[in-house]
Write a structure and sequence with these properties.
This protein starts with a strand and ends with a strand. It is globular, with a radius of gyration of 17 Å. By secondary structure, the chain is mainly β. It has strands spanning 2-8, 13-19, 24-33, 38-41, 45-50, 53-58, 63-70, 73-82, 87-90, 94-98, 102-106, 111-117, 127-136, 141-152, 156-160, 165-171, 182-191, 196-199, 204-208, 212-216, 221-227, 235-244, 247-257.
């Protein structure tokens, strides 16, 4: 498969999604065995939905949220995990916006933050937008509250904790040669009543490289991973960060040789 994405809750449950060579979205549920450091996977299931890109996150309440792009349309579906059967009961995929590639995060209060690039191939394709929402547990859908443009750049990722703190990372604007390989972060505080994110003082440069991803824990620890730059594209760089009062310092950096 291609374009893999994975999410994990605090109990060692995980969900992996990817596209096959025909662009169908597949998923599988797994349980981490911490004694053997292995994942006990269930069967791989075809969702029978075609897409160009997919993102997923899960929480401790057994909810799974997946967003995916079909051409220039963005869809979202909510699933309920059955850990015993290692399956997910999905709701309907509902169009919620238009745009490019996206990232979604859900916390244990069933609150959601989604970020996406502008209309794929359009004049706003380098704009970054966010949406705030919550799960409607009766209908297994997402009720979106608000959304707006917040930055510009390349591929992006978002993570969210239970206190409404979120961290977003992204590549620099691809239209500007000098910063297209720069990696930036933003830290924000989500108001789930108004759907507005109060961001820190603009994007902060922290590294260079290619596409990446970000995860944040309830104690403010952030784990960031991204591909190396063009001349070092086989290197995967991992940053372990600590966030205090919506700012962070870099703790240490790990370099791993391999494929991203």
């Amino acid at each position: 498969g291609i374009i893999p994405t994975i999410a994990m809750d605090d109990n060692g449950n995980c969900v992996e999604m990817h596209l096959d060579e025909s662009s169908y979205i597949y998923y599988r549920f797994g349980k981490i065995d911490y004694k053997t450091n292995k994942i006990n996977w269930g069967n791989v299931y075809n969702t029978y939905v075609k897409a160009n890109f997919v993102s997923v996150d899960i929480n401790n309440n057994g909810y799974c949220v997946s967003t995916y792009r079909k051409e220039n349309e963005l869809f979202c579906k909510v699933g309920k995990i059955n850990p015993d059967l290692k399956t997910i009961s999905w709701g309907s995929g509902i169009k919620y916006n238009t745009g490019g590639n996206m990232s979604v995060a859900i916390n244990n209060n069933n609150k959601i933050v989604e970020v996406h690039q502008g209309y794929h191939g359009g004049t706003n394709k380098y704009n970054h937008y966010y949406l705030v929402g919550s799960i409607n547990t009766y209908s297994n859908t997402v009720s979106w509250i608000n959304g707006m443009k917040y930055d510009t750049g390349g591929s992006l990722s978002i993570s969210l904790d239970d206190n409404g703190n979120c961290m977003e990372t992204h590549l620099g604007n691809p239209s500007i040669l000098s910063n297209r390989a720069n990696r930036y972060y933003l830290i924000g505080k989500v108001n789930f009543s108004t759907g507005i994110i109060s961001w820190n003082d603009g994007s902060t440069l922290y590294d260079t490289g290619g596409n990446g991803d970000i995860a944040i824990s309830s104690n403010g620890t952030c784990l960031e991973v991204h591909r190396g730059e063009h001349h070092d594209s086989w290197t995967i760089r991992i940053n372990v960060l600590k966030m205090w009062n919506r700012s962070f310092v870099q703790a240490f950096k790990i370099f791993v040789r391999g494929f991203l």
